[in-house]
């Protein structure tokens, strides 16, 4: 059987889109998005002790480090072109209390890590996490009274945390607690305490997600957590609500917006970017990392290709940057 040439068909549009995919040079000329190490923020876990790095079983390849090791790791990351690092403290059960007082101590492990990194690499941006969960005996991001996570008393504590972190040299504060009114309260406290230039990257659209499981192992929160976080973190079914939260946080003084988790929520990233046009970040969370690594370890996925494809997807969705445990590996690959 013979066929007439395709171009003879009345339906042929002569737009052969494959022409621009034919060679690597052509593909690179028409590529719409580029990933660079400067798009990456590296989340790290810090703990008490000296000269120790320990693995986190549910996050293969990710380490928990003592504060004396973190400066050197930050320096390596900065040399790879990664502009920012985000600190998460591991707190054992015996340091957790009902009043969460350790949260605003300048000598807690997170605040010591801020100073260690600023000493080692002054030009690197240091980001923090603001929430009570690493210090709370209940494992919640806010104070628990009669089974309820209370809002306003929690905000007072978050403000104290924020001011201590700013005093220790943090460049970017990351309120991840999802209490109402915290951005405005933190912003006014920064203004009145001589920290007008400290930026806030608000965890604005943070969903009550099952993808945070490995992170809670990494920071020692899995055992502590009583119940779930659904009365403050968002319902995964909602998207309009995220837009209301973004408008609210921007009006209260947030400089940048975060969507979290990342890969299952790229539609939210796109909506934030399109509707608000503000610096928008996505967090490729622990469970997303664990999922990819588990498949890699089984030989089912190729590590480097899946890592890069997943990170490019954030850029395509409109993200200005990504918090990712892959940051050093991805930056190494990008640097060639
Ligand atoms: C805590 C916090 C969480 C993450 C970042 N900050 C966990 C949670 O809300 O339970 C999750 C990050 C990850 O899964 O990689 N406020």
From TrEMBL:
SMART domains tied to this protein: ALAD
GO BP terms in the entry: protoporphyrinogen IX biosynthetic process
Pfam families, A to Z: ALAD
Catalytic residues, chain numbering: 206, 260
Catalytic activity: 2 5-aminolevulinate = porphobilinogen + 2 H2O + H(+)
Gene Ontology molecular function: any one: porphobilinogen synthase activity
Known EC number: 4.2.1.24
A Gene Ontology term for the protein's cellular component: cytosol
The protein's annotated pathway: Porphyrin-containing compound metabolism; protoporphyrin-IX biosynthesis; coproporphyrinogen-III from 5-aminolevulinate: step 1/4
Listed CDD domains: ALAD_PBGS_aspartate_rich
This protein's UniProt keywords: Heme biosynthesis, Lyase, Porphyrin biosynthesis
Gene3D superfamilies given in the database record: Aldolase class I (3.20.20.70)
Record text on subunit structure and interactions: Homooctamer.
PANTHER family documented for this protein: DELTA-AMINOLEVULINIC ACID DEHYDRATASE
Family: Belongs to the ALAD family.
NCBIfam families: PRK09283.1 (NF006762)
Entry protein name: Delta-aminolevulinic acid dehydratase
Organism: Octadecabacter arcticus 238
Organism ancestry: Bacteria, Pseudomonadati, Pseudomonadota, Alphaproteobacteria, Rhodobacterales
């Amino acid at each position: 059987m013979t066929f007439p040439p395709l171009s003879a068909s009345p339906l042929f549009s002569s737009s052969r889109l494959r022409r621009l995919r034919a060679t690597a040079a052509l593909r690179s000329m028409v590529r719409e998005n580029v990933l660079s190490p400067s798009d990456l923020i590296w989340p790290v876990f810090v703990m008490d002790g000296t000269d120790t790095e320990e693995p986190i079983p549910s996050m293969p390849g990710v380490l928990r480090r003592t504060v004396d090791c973190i400066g050197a790791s930050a320096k390596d990351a900065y040399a790879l072109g990664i502009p920012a690092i985000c600190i998460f403290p591991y707190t054992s059960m015996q340091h957790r209390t009902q009043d969460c007082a350790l949260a605003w101590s300048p000598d807690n492990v997170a605040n010591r890590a801020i100073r260690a990194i600023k000493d080692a690499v002054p030009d690197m941006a240091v980001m923090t996490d603001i929430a009570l969960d690493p210090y709370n005996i209940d494992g919640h991001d806010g104070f628990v009274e009669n089974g309820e996570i209370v809002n306003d008393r929690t905000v007072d504590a978050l403000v104290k945390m924020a001011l201590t972190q700013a005093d220790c040299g943090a460049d970017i504060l990351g309120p991840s607690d999802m209490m109402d009114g915290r951005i405005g309260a933190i912003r006014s406290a920064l203004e009145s305490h001589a920290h007008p230039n400290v930026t806030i990257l608000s965890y604005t659209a943070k969903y009550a997600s099952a993808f945070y499981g490995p992170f809670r192992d990494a920071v020692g929160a899995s055992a502590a957590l009583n119940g779930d976080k659904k009365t403050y973190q968002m319902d995964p079914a909602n998207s309009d609500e995220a837009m209301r939260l973004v408008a609210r946080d921007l009006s209260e003084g947030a400089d940048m917006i975060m969507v979290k988790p990342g890969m299952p929520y790229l539609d939210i990233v796109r909506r934030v970017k399109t509707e608000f046009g503000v610096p928008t970040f996505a967090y490729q969370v622990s469970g997303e990392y664990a999922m990819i690594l588990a498949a890699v370890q089984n030989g089912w996925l190729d590590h480097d290709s899946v890592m890069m494809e997943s990170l490019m997807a954030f850029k395509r969705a409109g993200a200005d940057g990504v918090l990712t445990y892959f940051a050093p590996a991805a930056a190494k690959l990008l640097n060639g």
